[in-house]
Write a structure and sequence with these properties.
mainly alpha
Length: 184
């Protein structure tokens, strides 16, 4: 085996991950951050492989979602975020320690592959999800930073729940919150 073979394997993994992100309609900025590819290379990949596909993949423009409050704004989205965070935890997408680097908390090819696996499994569990791939990337980053969101356990069923870090109320999942006594 030649030393250069390893470099080609690494490049191939980055290109494969970029195409996978594109199929999930990730923005160029997100793809660049996770793969290390240039904007020009990403656009060329899109033109070469995805413009001629029968179900053309949309390319979103503008800034990626950036507000952590999106995940706790409604019971439905909070439940979806909890399902997705559970998959992230199972597949090791979210690091076990809080990440200090605020600009690049978790990107990387191996973690990006696991992110895609988790998101694809999530879409099988929640087919009409409100959470897009870009929101999934935001959720990973927010959980890794630990500044606004955290993972908590439901006080009733001990299920995993995404909660606002500043929320001091008793943590309950959507299901258990609905089961509480209405007189209380």
């Amino acid at each position: 085996m030649r030393i250069s073979d390893d470099r080609y394997t690494r490049d191939r993994l980055r290109l494969d991950l970029a195409l996978r992100f594109m199929r999930h309609e990730a923005r160029t900025h997100t793809i660049r951050k996770w793969t290390g590819l240039t904007d020009d290379r990403i656009r060329k990949l899109y033109r070469s492989y995805l413009t001629r596909a029968p179900g053309q993949v949309a390319r979103h423009r503008g800034k990626s979602p950036g507000q952590a409050s999106f995940f706790v704004r409604s019971p439905r989205v909070q439940q979806e975020a909890s399902v997705l965070a559970s998959l992230f935890s199972l597949l090791g997408v979210v690091p076990s320690n809080v990440v200090v680097d605020h600009d690049h908390p978790v990107p990387g090819v191996a973690r990006g592959e696991r992110l895609c696996q988790a998101f694809e499994a999530f879409l099988m569990f929640v087919p009409r999800a409100h959470i897009t791939f870009e929101h999934a990337v935001l959720l990973v980053n927010e959980l890794a930073r630990g500044e606004e969101l955290r993972l908590g356990d439901c006080s009733v069923c001990e299920g995993l729940v995404v909660v606002d870090k500043l929320d001091v109320r008793d943590v309950r999942c959507i299901r258990c919150a609905g089961l509480q006594d209405p007189r209380a």
